[in-house]
Amino acid sequence: MEGKVNLLDLTIEEMQKLLADMGQEKFRAKQIFQWIHKGIKDIDEMTNLSKTLRQELKNNTYIGKLKVHEKYVSKIDGTTKYLFELPDGNLIESVLMVYKHGLTVCISSQIGCKMGCKFCASTGIGFMRNLSAGEILDQVLSIETDAGKRVGHVVIMGIGEPLDNYDNVVKFLRLVNHPEGLNIGYRNISVSTCGLVPEMMDLSKESMPITLSISLHAPNDEIREKIMPINKRYSIDKILEACKIYTEVTKRRITFEYAMIAGVNDSRENALELAHKIKGMLCHVNLIPMNPIEAADLKKSSREYIEQFKSILERYGIDTTVRRELGSDINAACGQLRRSTMENHS
Known about the structure:
This protein is an alpha/beta fold. It contains eleven helices and 14 strands.
């Protein structure tokens, strides 16, 4: 593959340029784009292209291919966890979730993560590299092929910090939304960040009405710094200021993700402090019953504490939901499967 171009990484315009450089007709770019976004992995399957063009493409390009390294289907709710192997041998995780409104995929944006959040299973196994736009896209395509059904919603909340891989993630968003490709509406896409303020500001100017999810997980800097090192760089006040600008520019409400950790961030006082900070904002809070991680001595809050937290936020007019726990029997949380696989092989 060395020196060859992964067709999944290319926009139609980039494909047109590639074809022009090969002395081929530009209009073929749309046909190639449509083929690869249907999930085909063999250039010879592009039957409306001449044999000569197909050979030329094989000489200069390839279609990136993820290999299913492991796959687990939850007996509880049908959630499917994929551990994909990339051509370079690295592993990434993706999850397929079944909801009433259709299929949602949760995908990774990096191999490993630099952020070091204490409650995340991705922490402690190192950062390898960013995923390309095509490698991010291929997770959606591979899952669609495996499931035999159309994916309607995409969440970039798997391994990695999406805004730390800004250019590739934004390019992926444009590719997955393209009418000649998967045509998934921006309003059906969520991007999660632990709060990289400059990139949040850049994203607000991209004219993409996606949902921005902020991994907040604490009502104040003191608690957040203990569990999220990034808070030393961007305080909660700075993040909330960026969120307000984001909602003004995009007219889209922000989702605050809040992992409920027993004895750390789940008290009545914590709920009141959070409510005072975000009341009046165009936002929604998603309380997450935390997945226990062996490496971190953190425990999930009790149902009673979660419900108390929720009712306090609602009293202040803040729209709040408790995330449904999906795939608990198959380690469906970010990084759990990759981590256990890597530890077993080391």
